[in-house]
Design goal:
The structure is a single chain. The protein is an alpha/beta fold. About 35% of the residues lie in helices and about 15% in strands. Strands 7-6-5-8-9 form a five-stranded parallel beta sheet. It has a four-stranded parallel beta sheet with strand order 2-1-3-4.
């Protein structure tokens, strides 16, 4: 059985069956990553281009490591050191790269919709590694894998996603993906940092942290994306931290098994107190580990692999 989708552009409209297949396959690759020899030959002979127009640390390393674990040949592209600086268009860049006989493209770009645009320019498989304020599907998949790994299920759980919702492609992908998988998702943030039409995501919305975390099985804190904001969206960092940051007092109201998550990088002392980020409930580093397994699963399945 293989995926219905041919590219991974986002999780909106991706079926429950496809998401479950990716998560099940990621579980298998997680087991591979626990072995002494962590490499499998499943994508030997395939060339994957990592086309990053935005800075990235963990996502780029995670994809490149996943490609090497699958025995693919990764090629790295950075806009800051390429012909883009000489005025080359995105379409010309991808067509020139395709002429070198590549198979898959992992793309991150500041403009929403670039992954879809690339599907119109090339026959290569496209994987979205984050596009503007739109989606970051592999991050949401690794989040769901981590929750299922720790709590044994997704259906029926309550997940509170708190922080800078407006600028968060992670929040959008999680909202769509988790809704498909039967999760009760609550988005919470300052009214100035909520989407214009949040209920169109099919989730609950509040500006009260206390209301959001009541009965939550998972609390996912989001990074305050100061680099994407104009001034005046909240009075001060201190006020934001006091009202929307997660500290020991707030997590004392959670169940003892509740998970604390964050897509990283963490602004310690802003959205998360260090005591919470490093607490036994935190699974932030598990998310990073699972990112490699999820990206291996996505590349494997979109590269023609099937489940047994």
């Amino acid at each position: 059985m293989g995926l219905e989708i041919q590219h991974l552009l986002g999780l909106e409209n991706v079926s429950r069956e496809d998401i479950k297949l990716i998560l099940d396959t990621a579980d298998s690759f997680y087991e591979v990553l626990q072995r002494e020899i962590k490499v499998v030959p499943t994508l030997r002979g395939k060339t994957v281009v990592n086309l990053f127009y935005e800075d990235s640390t963990r996502t780029r390393i995670s994809f490149e490591l996943a490609e090497k674990r699958l025995s693919a040949s990764p090629m790295n592209f950075s806009a800051s050191t390429s012909s883009v600086k000489k005025g080359e268009t995105l379409k010309d860049t991808i067509r020139n790269i395709e002429a070198m006989k590549i198979d898959m493209v992992v793309v991150r770009h500041s403009a929403a919709g670039v992954p879809y645009f690339l599907t119109q320019c090339t026959d290569a498989v496209i994987v979205n590694a984050g596009d503007g304020l739109h989606e970051h599907p592999t991050q949401a998949l690794l989040d769901m894998m981590t929750i299922r790994q720790k709590l044994g299920k997704l259906q029926g759980l309550k997940v509170a996603i708190i922080g800078d919702i407006f600028h968060s492609r992670v929040a959008r992908s999680n909202a769509w993906g988790m809704k498909t998988m039967g999760v009760d998702v609550v988005l919470c943030g300052p009214p100035t940092l909520l989407p214009q039409h949040p209920y169109s995501l099919g989730v609950n919305v509040t500006d009260s942290v206390e209301e959001a975390i009541e009965g939550a099985d998972v609390v996912m804190m989001l990074r305050m994306q100061l680099e994407r904001q104009s001034s005046g969206v909240f009075p001060s960092i201190r006020e934001y931290r006091d009202r929307y940051g997660l500290d020991l007092e707030k997590i004392s109201k959670l169940s003892k098994d509740a998970l604390i998550m964050h897509p990283g990088p963490v602004n310690r002392g802003v959205e998360l107190a260090s005591t919470v980020a490093d607490s036994p409930n935190s699974v932030i580093l598990d998310q990073v580990t699972n990112g490699v397994a999820v990206r291996m699963a996505v590349l494997y399945l979109l590269g023609g692999g099937e489940s047994e």
